Amino acid sequence: MSKLKHENIKTLGELKAAGYSYKSIKDELRVNLLEKISNGEETFHGVWGYENSVIPELERAILSRHNINLLGLRGQAKTRLARLMVQLLDEWIPVVEGSEINDDPFEPISRYALELIKEKGDKTPIAWIHRDERFYEKLATPDVTVADLIGDIDPIKAANLKLSYADDRVIHFGMIPRANRSIFVINELPDLQARIQVALFNILQEGDIQIRGFKLRLSLDLQFVFTANPEDYTNRGSIVTPLKDRIGSQILTHYPENLEIAKKITLQEAQLDQRQKEIIHVPELALDVLEQISFEARKSEYVDAKSGVSARMSITAFENLLSAAERRIARSKEEKTTVRLMDFMGIIPSITGKIELVYEGEQEGAGSVAETLIEDAIKSLFPSYFPKISKLERKDAETVYDELIHWFFEGEGFDLLDEDNDQEYRNKLDSISPLNALLEEYHPSLAKEDSYFMKELLLWGLVAHKKLSKHRFTQGYQFKDLYGSYIRGL
Questions:
Q1: For residues 449 and 150, which has the higher predicted lDDT (pLDDT)?
Q2: Sign (positive/negative) of CA torsion 393, 411, 487, 481?
């Protein structure tokens, strides 16, 4: 019902006159989803990369009136999908006023609502709840109890009402009954102790609950959504088989399949200050490198593949990348700047906190692994912008990079400092004539503000392919040829 209509409906009699009819939450979701699909509307806004995989499966599960388990590694938008299901609910629904469990006026289930309607009939007061209030979420932790989820006897209520423990009015309802006619999400389901999972059997299959021996036939109306990592993620536990059997659809989520989708997610989710957006230019290539780091991490021999690499890594890395550039221009008192490849050293804390290392990675050290991932990302993207460098080359074979490598051979090294202002940074890169020539040959139409990042990529790419050396010192980086300085010292 529209907001305008429901504002004037205060009693059960007025609700009947308005032509209201009861719908279960699963039917509600189903009807509204079909309407959106028929109208060509987007059903799960802001979720990228799932258009042809997860979302169709989720829509089919909703149309089938299934409870749903979203199974996938961390950072795959499982909870986001569950929260977006709220938009498929009716905007407003009526409840019996004062009901603890959102009793529908036409289908009351609690003792309170049944007695109130019996007493007042069509004058029973009606309240309205918005769809945003019909979403309940519980993180499964080992300390969750049956009382938390389903309910327990409340001694204080029994004392205040002067009732015995045999009276069902002394029951304090848990989260699940209070979420009647709502979407109820249990995150990280395997963390729930097996005996607590068993307590969900009847709720999922028959829709009723039992508390401390009370035989309550409360036909709860709920849409359950569970989220879980694959069962082999840790040794913490698993979803018990009979519970899995009662969940209608299990849907596998996944990470972005290409850079374009990954960039959309990062740009949408990053928490940026408006000033950062205005004063810092981010070349498209910089975004590609940023996302490629996550792709490299997911296949790295140093990173635990079972743990996964969350999309949050790219998001927080992007925030750190802009902060590194912002800090630099604050120190140099400049008004604007462009992200540099050197700024990527500022994202290392975002990487080390987001990846789980295997034994070999622990031996290397988290910081070293992070630097390796950045170098691997550059190495993977390099052939998309410049001629590929083969692992095996004929002796004395000429390459397009010979002049640039010779420039470093003849020189004493080339320093780029962290605190160089934009003019100093550009002048240094412009001073390498073979570098300018390569950029002119392979990217003649590249915008000037993006060209310096591309020049850096070329230098770092040659380092990654063992054509130049790169040395970190306190204030920045020094690029040199691999052997020239050694030969001159003989």
A1: 449
A2: negative
Rg for the chain, CA atoms, rounded: 30
The closest of 299, 308, 322 to 373, measured between CA atoms, is 299
Average pLDDT, integer, range 254-263: 95
Question: How many other CB atoms are there within 10 angstroms of residue 162's CB atom?
Answer: 7
**More confidently predicted of 364 and 216:** 364
Q: Please measure the distance between the N-terminal and C-terminal CA atoms of the chain and give it in whole angstroms.
A: 88
Separation of alpha carbons 185 and 83, rounded Å? 9
In order, the DSSP letters of 379-424 are HHHGGGTSPPPPSS--TT---TTHHHHHHHHHSS-EEEETT--HHH
Residue 193 has pLDDT above 50, yes or no: yes
* C-alpha 138, offset from chain centre: 17
What is the sign of the dihedral through the CA atoms of 183, 188, 191 and 197? positive
Which of 185, 297, 227, 183 shows the shortest CA–CA distance to 76? 227
Amino acid at 162: K
| Entry pTM | 0.87
* Phi and psi torsions of 93, nearest 5°: -135, 150
Contact between 435 and 404 (Cβ < 8 Å):
yes
Q: Please give the sequence-ordered ranges of beta strands (E in DSSP) within 201-265, or none if there are none.
A: 209-211, 214-216, 222-228, 249-252
Q: What is the pLDDT of residues 377-393, one digit of tens each?
A: 999 999 999 999 887 56
Give 25-86 as a 3 state SS string: HHHHHHHHHHHHHHCCCCCCCCCCCCCCCHHHHHHHHHHCCCCEEEECCCCCCHHHHHHHHH
Is the distance from CB of 240 to CB of 194 less than 8 angstroms?
Answer: yes
Nearest-10 crossing angle of helices 448-464, 433-442: 110
242/389 Cα distance (integer angstroms): 55
- Cβ atoms of residues 369 and 300 within 8 Å: yes
Q: Output the pLDDT for position 235.
A: 46
Task: Give the strands of the sheet with 222-228, arranged side by side.
Answer: 135-139, 182-187, 222-228, 68-71, 249-252
Angle at 395 between CA 391 and CA 401, to 5 degrees: 65
